[in-house]
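pls design
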């Protein structure tokens, strides 16, 4: 039996943690932006537009369309896109990549995008499974000596008694199940479920009043005594992505082939595998046993994509099973990467025509102050009112990103001076040691004759 591990969607931790204070879009019931809410400040129009996008995604009315966030650096494009992800909830897949990532991986650019797209399409599968379930009232393991380690004992089976309010049964279970029971530390009073076909054991909780031990704090949750018969048919729902299913198909093929020798699992999924997966999924959907959940594919710094990638995406959003595409860029009129074709935001017009554009605007001084205050809270950096003023000035005159970056070094500088709160001189010291982009460019230009060419 092959064990399949499902990979987590691609996520760039650094980028996500920079936006860890964002909990949602901060809208009220009518979809109006609250000035400061869910970690978001200002940028009212863009947030309200994003709220409408969330609504359309949830109602399934966005398929085959896309969104483009456009605005100067540090105006919250990525932050608002993260807010969208939070609002969509866990059940809607959200995959975030950066335009430049398509070049850095070991696979072809279009294959990388294809995998990202398929990670973004959820398949909610309903299954009916036959299970044994009940509260354990007795458990006895049969041990034998381990033939390779004579002093160790291994479980070769177990006898368990399961009870519900209406039924009671004793079962003999094989080695695989006995091992799972031991690993889970299943005790009398535990409510468990055993899948008849796969033998997978799940502990649902502890039944009130059935446990002998009284220290239930922090352990498995307390549940009511189950009802009905021990053996029953249950409906379960789980969501996987098309990419998960592709990977399972690839692994199954590899396991089969590896009977004849070691075979490395391919990094690229062949079109035949994907076609077979799609057909199976469609059959399940037709039978009413599965539902497609289109998610959101967010591509940050979209101007880093090239023509090949853009035409791939344009075709992809026209096709049948497709995610909602959200792009972000801080470029104005510029050439499409790798060509000398000029286009708004470096994006070809045929794709641009299919996108709803959401602009973001520069912040006012008060908004910058509020964002810095929230970030300082999030990073647990205590600021004096004066140092907050200093950081705000830097945020306005240099850039918000730079001001936020200075907080951590300023905190260390303050600590070295034996202070727990960051003060104005700590911020000033930090800003002398670390340059913002403009200053570093000026420096490079001033020393250009001494630099490597
Ligand atoms: N309206 C806002 N409310 C709260 N935090 C914000 C807001 N806008 C930006 N931020 C925070 O400020 C920092 C910079 O913003 P962000 O990275 O979203 O800008 P961006 O528009 O994506 O910039 P770039 O064009 O450089 O990618 C981040 O830490 C972000 O979470
Ligand atoms: Mg960004």
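designed seq:
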């Amino acid at each position: 039996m092959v064990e399949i591990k499902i990979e987590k969607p691609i996520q760039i931790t650094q980028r996500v943690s920079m936006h860890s204070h964002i909990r949602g879009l901060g809208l009220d019931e009518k979809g109006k932006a609250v000035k400061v809410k869910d970690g978001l400040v200002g940028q009212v129009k863009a947030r309200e537009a994003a709220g409408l996008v969330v609504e359309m995604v949830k109602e399934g009315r966005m398929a085959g369309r896309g969104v483009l966030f456009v605005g100067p650096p540090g105006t919250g494009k990525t932050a608002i896109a993260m807010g969208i992800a939070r609002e969509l909830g866990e059940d809607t897949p959200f995959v975030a990549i950066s335009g430049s990532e398509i070049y850095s991986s070991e696979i072809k650019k279009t294959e990388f995008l294809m995998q990202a797209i398929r990670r973004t399409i959820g398949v909610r599968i309903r299954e009916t499974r036959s299970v044994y379930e009940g509260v354990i009232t007795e458990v006895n393991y049969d041990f034998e000596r381990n033939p390779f380690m004579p002093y160790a004992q291994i479980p070769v089976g177990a006898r368990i008694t399961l009870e519900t309010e209406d039924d009671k049964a004793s079962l003999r279970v094989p080695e695989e199940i006995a091992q799972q029971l031991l690993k889970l530390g299943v005790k009398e009073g535990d409510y468990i479920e055993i899948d008849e076909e796969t033998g997978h054991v799940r502990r649902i909780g502890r039944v009130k009043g059935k446990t002998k031990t009284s220290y239930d704090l922090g352990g498995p949750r307390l549940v009511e005594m189950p009802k009905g018969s021990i053996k029953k048919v249950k409906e379960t729902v789980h969501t996987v992505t098309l990419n998960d299913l592709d990977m399972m198909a690839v692994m199954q093929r590899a396991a089969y082939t590896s009977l004849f020798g070691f075979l490395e699992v391919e990094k690229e999924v062949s079109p035949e595998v994907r076609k077979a997966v799609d057909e199976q999924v469609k059959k399940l959907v037709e039978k009413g046993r599965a539902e497609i959940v289109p998610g959101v594919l967010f591509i940050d710094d979209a101007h880093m994509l090239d023509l090949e990638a853009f035409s791939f995406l344009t075709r992809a959003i026209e096709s049948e099973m497709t995610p909602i595409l959200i792009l972000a860029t801080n470029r104005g009129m510029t050439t499409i990467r790798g060509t000398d074709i000029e286009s708004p935001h470096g994006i070809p017009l045929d794709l641009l025509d299919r996108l709803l554009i959401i602009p973001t605007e520069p912040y006012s001084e008060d908004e910058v102050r509020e964002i810095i205050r929230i970030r300082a809270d999030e990073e647990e950096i205590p600021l004096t009112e004066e140092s907050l003023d200093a950081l705000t000035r830097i945020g306005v005159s240099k850039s918000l990103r730079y001001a936020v970056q200075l907080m951590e070094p300023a905190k260390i500088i303050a600590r070295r001076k034996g202070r727990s709160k960051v003060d104005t001189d700590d911020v000033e010291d930090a800003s002398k040691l670390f340059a913002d982009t403009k200053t570093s460019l000026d420096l490079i230009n001033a020393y250009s004759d001494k630099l490597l060419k």
